[in-house]
Task: inverse folding
């Protein structure tokens, strides 16, 4: 009895912000202007993506090919706790304070000079949460004096940046039906915008907008054809039209009602066209024979008006997906010159193994090409970017089997964990290349009968993921989006699962599950620096400058979907240790006023 009371007291204490007693050195005040200009202001990182377009490019150059060998850690901060698992977060920095999330819906504020904790918030999670792919979180949004993040029980929570105390909390969806939030929200003109997870449970994907200051709901746009969108004006709920115009045109019978298309990775924003770009996951269930048709808007990219949630255009990467090729990967806006004209483009590297360049004003397909060594489910893309299927590599229909229990098994490349998964790529306007964290793997996959049941897995498929090569799965690639050329590659034994950043210092940064934070020459791919952080890196690095010095931070802590879903590959990396630490690096003091700085 006494033990039970103690446990309860600890749980209660953990559910509120814990002040460490150290004076807070700063009180973040993040404005719309700070957010819109984030990519070019080097003294802060106030958006997921280091700029709303998601290029993950920094104009900083003090750390460069000549100086990076002297980079050294200045502090490391542990998330603590008994629970670790995957740490997929991108830190934020404002006015000398870092805001970073840990696994199990935890948030930390840290003094960027000393690495000392200012406050910690730990969400009290119910027992029944259903995260498909580890208890991860990818980061916070900052707005005004608020730190806003999504929880594994599908809430948005706004914390006071100064104290870590809850200012508002909103239930976005019902976690008992399989909904969760793991992505970082973004803020556009005072609205906090989030996606939702749950595509493996037959949820209905949506993009949601809330008033960042008050938490009042502003609009909701479902990403499955047939569901009604809404906006809220003075507390009144107003219909804003059915997604796709009518119910289930590209779906059979009632399947659209549990159609998936989860927006689980969140989105980017392009100020030039005033569009949110969100990706959508697999149609549910995985067994494609149950749902003939294109199954809009699953496995797509959707451009959305940030004012009312209306869909401006969509581009479907895998119509009638049968391989769990979620189309969620980030769509990054960029420009290039062609025949003396500037092309307003956006690019994405899809789970399905193809890299797409789109016209970001209307979603038109410009070009596409495979970015992994072998794609076997499709032989290519047609002139509109639609895949040319290899029908023999679609898992077979269970009703064709004599007992009706299991369809023909096929070997499909890439595996459903993707030519690239969630981990963000980066774009350098200096080289014109995208730096893509990718993987070479395949899967045995077969279909089984299934039926939708709220809160239960809804796949209708079985699978085993296998490596293709003995010596590597991961490949960091430099890709020219104008030609499709792989300019350079760096193979990695374990699958790459962390994000990428590039800088004006001519460097490309990422981490690997073996624990190394690494820097590569952006033009040649030569590895110029590595440091082992003690656990696998599946987070995304950032950089900023403070008092004349350039800082680099990354979160270390192995986990995510690979150990849970990776089959044969999971066995291959089972010796990697878990963790939960933010590492921060800079050059020695003597570089502070050095002429080596290019900016
Ligand atoms: Ca900035
Ligand atoms: Ca999926």
Result:
């Amino acid at each position: 009895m006494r033990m039970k009371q103690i446990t309860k007291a600890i749980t209660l204490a953990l559910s509120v912000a814990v002040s460490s007693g150290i004076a807070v050195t700063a009180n973040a005040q993040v404005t719309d202007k700070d957010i819109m200009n984030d990519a070019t202001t080097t003294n802060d990182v106030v958006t997921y993506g280091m700029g709303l377009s998601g290029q993950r490019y920094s104009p900083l150059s003090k750390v460069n090919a000549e100086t990076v060998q002297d980079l050294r850690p200045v502090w490391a901060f542990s998330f603590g706790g008994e629970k670790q698992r995957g740490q997929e977060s991108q830190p934020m920095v404002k006015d000398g304070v870092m805001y970073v999330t840990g696994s199990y819906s935890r948030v930390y504020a840290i003094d960027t000079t000393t690495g000392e904790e200012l406050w910690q918030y730990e969400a009290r999670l119910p027992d029944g949460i259903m995260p498909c792919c580890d208890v991860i979180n990818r980061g916070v949004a900052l707005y005004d004096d608020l730190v806003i993040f999504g929880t594994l029980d599908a809430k948005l929570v706004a914390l006071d940046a100064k104290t870590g105390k809850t200012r508002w909390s909103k239930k976005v969806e019902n976690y008992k039906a399989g909904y969760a939030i793991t992505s970082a929200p973004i803020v556009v003109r005072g609205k906090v915008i989030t996606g939702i997870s749950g595509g493996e449970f037959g949820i209905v994907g949506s993009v949601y907008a809330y008033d960042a200051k008050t938490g009042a709901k502003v609009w909701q746009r479902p990403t499955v054809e047939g569901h009604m969108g809404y906006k809220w004006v003075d507390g009144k709920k107003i219909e804003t039209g059915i997604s796709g115009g009518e119910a289930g045109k590209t779906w059979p019978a009632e399947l659209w009602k549990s159609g998936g298309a989860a927006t689980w990775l969140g989105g980017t924003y392009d100020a030039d066209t005033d569009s949110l770009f969100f990706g959508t996951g697999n149609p549910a269930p995985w067994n494609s024979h149950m749902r003939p048709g294109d199954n809009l808007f699953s496995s797509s990219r959707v451009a959305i008006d940030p004012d009312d949630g209306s869909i401006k255009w969509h581009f479907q990467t895998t119509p009638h997906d049968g391989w769990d090729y979620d189309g969620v990967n980030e769509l990054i806006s960029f420009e290039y010159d062609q025949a003396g004209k500037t092309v307003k483009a956006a690019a994405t590297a899809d789970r399905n193994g193809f890299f797409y360049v789109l016209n970001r004003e209307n979603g038109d397909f410009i070009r596409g090409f495979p970015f992994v060594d072998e794609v076997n489910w499709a032989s290519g893309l047609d002139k509109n970017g639609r895949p040319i299927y290899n029908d023999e590599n679609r898992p077979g229909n269970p009703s064709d089997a004599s007992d009706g229990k299991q369809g023909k098994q096929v070997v499909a490349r890439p595996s459903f964990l993707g030519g690239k998964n969630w981990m963000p790529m980066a774009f350098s306007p200096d080289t014109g290349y995208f730096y893509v964290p990718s993987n070479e793997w395949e899967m045995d996959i077969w279909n089984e009968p299934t039926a939708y049941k709220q809160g239960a897995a809804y796949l209708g498929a079985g699978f085993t993921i296998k490596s293709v090569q003995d010596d590597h799965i991961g490949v960091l690639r430099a890709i020219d989006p104008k030609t499709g050329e792989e300019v350079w590659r760096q193979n990695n034994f374990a699958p790459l699962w962390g994000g990428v950043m590039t800088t004006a210092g001519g460097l490309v940064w990422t981490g690997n599950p073996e624990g190394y934070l690494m820097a590569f020459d952006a033009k040649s791919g030569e590895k110029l620096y590595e440091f082992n952080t003690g656990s696998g890196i599946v987070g995304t690095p950032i950089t900023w400058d403070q008092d004349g010095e350039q800082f680099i931070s990354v979160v270390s802590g192995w986990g995510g979907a690979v150990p849970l879903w990776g089959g044969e590959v999971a066995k291959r990396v089972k010796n990697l240790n878990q963790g939960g630490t933010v590492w921060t690096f800079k050059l020695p003091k003597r570089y502070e006023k050095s002429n080596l700085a290019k900016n």
About this structure: The CA atoms of residues 90 and 285 lie 31 Å apart. The first strand starts at residue 18 and ends at 19. Residues 38, 41, 44-46 surround calcium ion (ligand 1) (CB under 6 Å). The longest helix spans residues 2-14.
